Amino acid sequence: MDPLLTSLNRAQCAAVQHTTGPMLVLAGPGSGKTRVVTHRIAHLLRTGVPAAQLLALTFTNKAASEMRSRVGQLAPGEPVWLSTFHRFGAKLLRHYADHVGLSPNYTIYDTVDAKQALTRVIEAGNFQTMHYTPGRIGQAISRAKNKLIAPDRYQPRPGSPLSHIVAEVYPAYQRRLLASSAVDFDDLLMHVAQLLYANPDVRATLDERFRYILVDEYQDTNHAQYVILRALSADHRNLAVTGDPDQSIYGWRGADLNNILQFETDYPDAHVVRLERNYRSTKRILRVADQLIGNNLRRKRKSLFTDNEEGGAVRLVEYVTQDDEASSIATQISAAISSGQRRASDFAIFYRVNALSRGLERAFRQVGLPYQIIRGLEFYQRKEIKDVLGYCQLINNPRDDQAVLRTINTPARGIGAKTVNRLVQHAYAERIPLLDAARQVGTIQTTWASRCAKKVSAYVSLVDRLSTLADADMEEILGKILSETGYHDQLRDGETEEDLSRLANIEELLTDARQFDEEYPGGGYLESYLENAWLVNETDGWEADTDKVTLMTLHAAKGLEFPVVYIVALEHGVLPHERSTSDPSQLEEERRVAFVGITRAEQELQMSYAVERDFRGQRRRTVPSSFLLEMPREEMQVTFLEAVGPAVTCVDEFREDFIADDIPSIDLDSGLPEASISGESNSPLSQGVTASITTAAQMAGDGIDRLGHVSPDAFAQGMAVVHPEHGLGKIVALSGSGKNRRATVGFATAGEKRFVLVHSPLRPAGQ
DNA sequence: TCATGACTAACTGTT
DNA sequence: TTAGTCATGA
After folding, report:
1. CA–CA separation, A232 vs A218, rounded Å?
2. What does the pLDDT look like over A503-534, one tens digit per residue?
3. Which nucleotides of B are covered by protein (CB under 7 A)?
């Protein structure tokens, strides 16, 4: 028998062996879905399908890289195109940019940039937005884009003031994006859909090229993605989608559950495979999940079962405060680790909102538990990183207004809001990019103070100077930016804690760039580098093989599994989230979020809530989540507090309701966690905490070996160095790696010189 | 034009 | 709690 199939069950085999025609794989949690997808890719390759005809699309970067590594094991060296929808869209758009009015070097705006751009458009256009914030308007535009409603086709609805505003603002916003040759995340899909729709020849070419398409997490696709998929599989109808309606948790992002619920209507000849056997969780965990999700109406019924062990009871624990909750969990985990039962990496803690991670972090630090937090977009959202990347954006795409606005006065060079506004007005009036407007400063606006004009011209020539670097190594580009703009000096001379951490982050960025250069040597990859920065999310930074406890949102947890799972803050308003409690379909989505969390657990699961929780700096009484009442009592072990003080009626009521449902095992006074660990005693263990980033510079030490040679690693951006002939200088930029590592050094007398570090007599100053 | 400090409003999730 | 806005004085 084919070794690809031996380890699979019947349903899995059926899915893997399916080759032509549409297929829907309904895969319950833990049913080996990723296995099926990867094995199917390998199987297709084995049956002679060229790798170039395969396209596998996922929803997140994490899922894509997971899949890439697994396909790599099954079918090494096969160049299967495997990426997220957005990345796929970005690549296609590079190729067909002119078809949709972009230049190939277009910029991708993240949520923040897009919102700022929108705000500018609203201000500049003097739109009356009444009480609607740019955020609200942006959401409405995003929804329209996800539904593929083009700016000129948007129809305001009577009785919806917001839609009238959107009808005005949306076209202006989109015009400005195109003028900047920029797209937002939604455009990555909308433009592609439009491209395929408006260009039958392009569509046919791509349909021909991607004859076999596999889509993971199909329940999370939105209308735009749906249309793209349909367009790419019209002639070659080998579209295989996998998903689980019960795990659809991106409705707010436009995911349309109908896509999966109606797949069989769209493709009447679709082969449908159900993967219902769960290989992940214990019977009791699965029953809790199954009964909870049974309360949803909009779903496809499926029966989950497992041959795994019965397992221990699912725990529900009540705490007084969030601090109790956090420290109890931390103590439990470290006890399990020190007794040798578990490793730190066996544990994961899930929460509904990122803000809840802070208390947990504190508790973990106190106990000295190593942990890693998965949080979206942290690094690339930092001001200093965005500032530096802003210059890169500008080098890559000089029409990028957002980049101009970000960099024109960063670091401060005396170009104030007033000047910028005049520039913007001029640019909008002339319908030209901001940088061009800045370029014209000397010639057009005679009324301007020559002081301002001078500064603006200096900025323009700075950008021009940097632009000559477009094809250099990333590290060199970044290095030049840092030195030429004075950004590095400014931070280095700063004394605040903040400046220090900014500097550390910059170092981290340089290290990252250096790694990138090693992977893509020779330079000229600025665009790819930026694309990567724009489309990453920090989930990629998750290291499965380090021994740390994982903390993340329930959304980020999708697709992962852990031996022991904690879900915290099962409270009304948190899970379900307060913005979702009124709408039944949103409530169902919240239930699915809980379902996803529960089904990540392999052996143990603890859910908890606190009677009091700090929110917005205020302490509030909570109401336990109604979802808890929907779970089977007989599978659970409950730990209620004995007394929570006077008149905690909501919690009392909840307990009565919970107990009324004939609960066999209750455990009223045992198991209450000890108040908390004394905060003062700072154990030496806490040294092990690993939340901070160690920069390459920190690790490099003095970098001088016994022979007196200075390791190339000893040199860092901006460092003062000594040369025997030229004397004191400063490192302006670094590039290359290993023995090819070069430094550009600016000397006081001799000007700029370039050195190959291993052969150079350069030394860090002062050594 | 910029730095400072007071004040205020917001806190879902991800590409 | 905190990021962001606003007013003030230098």
Report:
1. 15
2. 888 888 898 899 899 989 988 899 999 988 88
3. 1-3, 10-15
